[in-house]
Amino acid sequence: MSQLLGLYRHATDRLESADWLLPTLARFLFAAVLLVYFVNAGVTKLGDGPLGILSPSTGAYAQIFPRAFEAVGYDSDALGLFHWIVVVAGTLAEFILPILIVLGLFTRLSALAMIGFVTVQSLTDLFGHGQWSALGSWFDRFPDAPILDQRALWIFLLSVLIVKGAGPLSLDRRLGHKS
């Protein structure tokens, strides 16, 4: 029995010394699971032309400010500067933050900002779009509720990057930042 425990300790000691593994896998999984999701969501908010980011689509306003947009008869020109700034900033965030995480650049700050983004996204889904049926519940037998289950896992993945940094295969490390 002690020989078995010794083998176990030896194996787990080797895992503890593999600090590079967890943040590298977290960034890889983020890229594999969420990068295209966020980039595609950003694309749906772009207006026409090369400066489409500065003239967001009506869908952008419908996604981010559903009740306010409905209240003005779906006329984005009737919304104010505040709405435009939030829509443009949110759209930029959907492109920039995921790319920074995948590249491992300003990873901790980017992951923290992504957690804020996911939180706002979830609250908008609940209060703005009334998607309370998507909330789900924890400790049930269904692991696929889009808000509580899935987004909790997203936030955990991002939390790993906040705590551990980007890992050795990152621009943070190349630039000499403590990743």
What is the overall number of helices? 8
Gap from first CA to last CA: 40 Å
The amount of helix comes to: 55-70%
Taking Cα atoms only, what radius of gyration do you get, to the nearest Å? 20 Å
Strand element count? 0
Overall structural class, as computed from helix and strand content, comes to: mainly alpha
Instruction: Give the overall shape.
Output: flat
H/E element order: HHHHHHHH
Number of domains: 1
Beta content comes to under 5%
Global mean pLDDT: 92
Note the main sheet. none
Describe the structure.
The protein is mainly α and 179 residues long. It has one domain. The radius of gyration is 20 Å and the shape is flat. It starts with a helix and ends in a 5-residue tail after the last helix.
Short description:
The chain is mainly α. The protein has helices at about 1-15, 20-45, 60-65, 65-70, 80-105, 105-130, 145-165, 170-175.
Helix and strand arrangement:
Blueprint: H1 2-16, H2 21-43, H3 58-64, H4 66-71, H5 81-103, H6 107-128, H7 146-164, H8 171-174
Task: Jot down its keywords.
single chain; 179 residues; mainly alpha; 8 helices; flat
